[in-house]
């Protein structure tokens, strides 16, 4: 994801939280739309079921179909559901699809789930034990970031109160990653989603598309 896109999305999300409280129902004459740049648009001009895509061109239905068989697409769909990007925001479905991607061996999904369970996000509380499960799988593949988070999950499981400051720091970081840091894998060519090689098996391979925490770039 290019730097200006990250900044634009971050501003967009900040405004959304400040004004609508994460997709609230407050009455407004305009709504924030990212297509792909973020800006205010009159509510009457926006399809409320596809807040960030001006017209339903079938791409989200195609993405869900692709997600059934492709862990990279499942990962993308999870992020879009969490962010409300192209679909109504749904945290429960987001976690369900992220777990689907993780179960099929996607390393990024395993780390994302581990981080989410480490700190909790929104209405979902922390679960250090579940975090340890996913981070252990990711760390076993030699991922240094997962190893670091695993150590924190283990510490949190032993004495969560003693790790309050670390917990809050990780919570802020993980929220940022889920909202704007993690990158999408697929590219929409107008008819279908294009993906490269994806991993196979429950924990085999991961189809990692970038390097480092913010590696690669968000593609639509």
Count the E strands.
Answer: 4
The domain tally reads: 2
Percentage of residues assigned to helices: 40-55%
| Average residue-wise pLDDT | 74
Order of helices and strands: HEEHHHHHHHEE
Please report which band the strand proportion falls in: under 5%, 5-15%, 15-25%, 25-35%, 35-45% or over 45%: 5-15%
| CATH fold label of the largest domain | Serine Threonine Protein Phosphatase 5, Tetratricopeptide repeat
* Individual helix count: 8
Radius of gyration: 17 Å
Order of strands in the sheet with most strands:
1-2
Distance between the termini: 10 Å
Question: What structural class do you assign from the helix and strand content?
Answer: mainly alpha
CATH secondary-structure class of the largest domain: Mainly Alpha
CATH-level-2 architecture of the largest domain? Alpha Horseshoe
Q: Show unreliable segments.
A: 1-27, 45-50, 199-220
Characterise this structure:
This protein has 220 residues and is mainly alpha-helical. It folds into 2 domains: 1-46, no CATH class; 58-194, Serine Threonine Protein Phosphatase 5, Tetratricopeptide repeat, CATH 1.25.40. 51% of the residues lie in helices and 6% in strands. It has 8 helices and 4 strands. It has helices at 3-20, 59-67, 71-83, 91-103, 107-119, 128-139, 144-159, 164-181, and strands at 30-34, 38-42, 187-188, 193-194. The strands form 2 sheets. It has a two-stranded antiparallel sheet with strand order 1-2. A two-stranded antiparallel sheet has the order 3-4. A hairpin with a 4-residue loop joins strand 3 (187-188) and strand 4 (193-194). Helix 4 (91-103) crosses helix 5 and helix 5 runs antiparallel to helix 6. The longest helix is centred in the N-terminal third of the chain and has 18 residues, at 3-20. The model is unreliable at 1-27, 45-50 and 199-220 (pLDDT under 50).
